[in-house]
Each structure stands twice: as C-alpha cells, then as structure tokens.
Amino acid sequence: GKDGYRHYMEKELHEHPVVIGQTLQRLIDPATRRVVMPELPFDLAAIPRAVVTACGSAFYAGMIGRYWIEQYARLPVDIDVASEMRYRNPPLAQGGLGLLISQSGETADTLAALRGMRAVGQHIVSVLNVEQSTMARESDAVLGTVAGPEISVASTKAFTAQLSVLACLTIALARARGLMDGAMEEAMVTALLDLPSKATEVFERHDEIRRMATIVAEARDVLYLGRGAMFPVALEGALKLKEITYIHAEAYAAGEMKHGPISLIDSSVPVVATVPSGPLFDKTLSNLQEARARGGRLLVFTDMEGAPRLREIAECVVAIPTVDEFVAPILQTIPVQILAYEVALLKGTDVDQPRNLAKSVTVE
Ligand code: F6R
C-alpha cells in the first residue's frame, strides 16, 4: 500500500534515503570503507572501453555514470539510448564492457541492445532493480539496485539507486586501473555513506520546493539547465515534469543555451537550474545571468555553499546540504523529482498513472 502517502510516487520519493543506503550496503564494506564488487567473470583492469545504454531515466543515470567513469577511471565510455544503440552497429572491440541499466530488466530496446553487444563479444554487466528479469538471465553479471518494487510509472528511487551502483563501479574501475589510492577511495566511500542522512535533510526544503512549484504550474514551457553531471539531472527533471504534469519542458546543457534556446526566454518561461558549488559553478552562474538579463525567472537548486550568490539573481533558491562534488548529482536529483511531483499535485493530474505511459515498455 501507500503507507499513508497520497500517491506511490510520494511514498517512493521518501524512500530515497533508505534505498541509497541499502544499495550501497551491498557494495561497500563499512569496516574497511572499500568498495567490494561481486565476483566478475572477467578482469575489470583489462577492459579497453565501455559502452553504456538504457532508456528514459535509466539512460540519464547512465550519462552521469559516463561522466564519473571517464573522470575518475579514465576509461573511454560511449553512450546512447538503447533504441538508437541497437541499430547503430558501432564498431566495438572484443572484451569491452557493455553496461546496461534498467529498473525492470524487461525493456525491449535495452534487452535488444544487450543481445547485440553480447553478439559482438562484450562483457555484459547490467544494473537492474528486478533481479529475476530477462536481462538478469542474459547478463554475465548483475549489479542490483536495492530499491524494492517501484509502482509509480514515473521512476524516482530506482534512479538514485542506479547512481549509487554506478558510483561504486566507478571506484572499482578506478582502483583496478591504478587511479585510486586508499585515501581517495576512503574519501569517496565516506561521501557515499553520508548520503542517506543528507538525503533525509532534502525533505526539510519542502516549503521552498512547493513555492517553486506554484510558479512552474502556471507555465506552458519550462527550460531546465545544468552543466557536467548536472546536465543529466536537468534532463531527468524535465522528463519527470513532462511525464506527470504534461507541461512542456526541455533540458539543455547550460553552455548550449546561447546557441538557440535563449531565444525562448522571457518572463513566461521559467528557467529551472541545478547549480551546486564546485568547479562548474561560476560558468553556470554566468549562463543564468544571461537568462536573467532577458527577463527569465530563475528557479535554482543548489547547496548551502552556492546559495548566497544565487540568491542575488534567482527568484527561488532551494539549498540542500553541500556534499562532495562526486556524489552531488545523486543528492541534487531528489529535489528536482519532488518539484515535478508538487507541480502534478497543483495540476491535479493522475500522478501514478500518467496518460499514454506504461511502467515497463516491453514492445519496441
Ligand atoms: C521515467 C521512466 C522511464 C523509464 C524507462 C526505462 O520516469 O520511468 O523513462 O526510466 O522506460 O525503464 P527501465 O528502467 O525499466 O528499463
């Protein structure tokens, strides 16, 4: 049941802290503060490159995974949505890593991409929530997300669970490739293990998110912006808004705004940006100033450290705890999903069963 929540989506949003914790527990030894991967039938250190594929939200999780794996493990990663990947026939070297991500493990396009990768000699690792699924049976290894059943058609908790797994895989790959010493691993693992309590604190920002929702609910179009690992967070926010509120939303890498979408901006198109403190903060801030100068209403997700400077230009600022740059996309996803939920409440849409959508897309 819904445990007293109004919708499954609301219940599942509140499960983020627990789900992140349970998922990490499987992959981290708390005593040594090290990542412990399940036995793999191949050598992580020998992987020449990785190819990541998935659909929808799972694909956005994969985009963040690519960002991490390239940055920390220095392994080249190719990524595409499964419906494109399965027909692209990319030239893949034998012994590469085929990394699939799926909540259900039954998505037709992702399954077809898995089979295509296997046929050309990739080692298949799947990040799955349903461990008794078709994709699980056809993979060389399964990395489980411990999210429990996700009933809401719009995915929420599965996403942060997928990111938790991908973060651990990144650490394991970086260590295998000789790029992660014990101190660095301990710092990254500590940042991960702190996430459940930090995620709980995000819910203390509910009133500010609700205020933001009243502005978004009035709009016909919304622009989401983010840079680096926050770009997929923006994509996730825009998808969730479209899915459950039927408001048109688009996400752009913040630096692309001036190459076209800036012409959309006026006071009727709110700009929702995810801008935590960190190396990309100033760059994104200057993109927001450009939007502001054109009359855009800025609604910003940031952290405690980034908040003071954003309050000078933004109409709404939601500041969640400041965390290590590595784990920030996991935490920043939560308020963005809550925003979509709050807008859906204001619009009175069928949150758990949006029109035209099915939980598991088993046809092409
Ligand atoms: C978005 C959403 C969909 C799924 C996509 C993949 O809220 O739910 O975009 O993420 O259909 O589904 P799985 O993860 O089951 O392969």
UniProtKB/TrEMBL annotation:
<comment type="subunit">
    <text>Homodimer.</text>
</comment>
<keyword id="KW-0315">Glutamine amidotransferase</keyword>
<keyword id="KW-0677">Repeat</keyword>
<keyword id="KW-0032">Aminotransferase</keyword>
<comment type="function">
    <text>Catalyzes the first step in hexosamine metabolism, converting fructose-6P into glucosamine-6P using glutamine as a nitrogen source.</text>
</comment>
<dbReference type="GO" id="GO:0004360">
    <property type="term" value="F:glutamine-fructose-6-phosphate transaminase (isomerizing) activity"/>
</dbReference>
<keyword id="KW-0963">Cytoplasm</keyword>
<feature type="domain" description="SIS">
    <location>
        <begin position="40"/>
        <end position="179"/>
    </location>
</feature>
<keyword id="KW-0808">Transferase</keyword>
<feature type="active site" description="For Fru-6P isomerization activity">
    <location>
        <position position="359"/>
    </location>
</feature>
<feature type="domain" description="SIS">
    <location>
        <begin position="212"/>
        <end position="354"/>
    </location>
</feature>
<protein>
    <recommendedName>
        <fullName>Glutamine--fructose-6-phosphate aminotransferase [isomerizing]</fullName>
        <ecNumber>2.6.1.16</ecNumber>
    </recommendedName>
</protein>
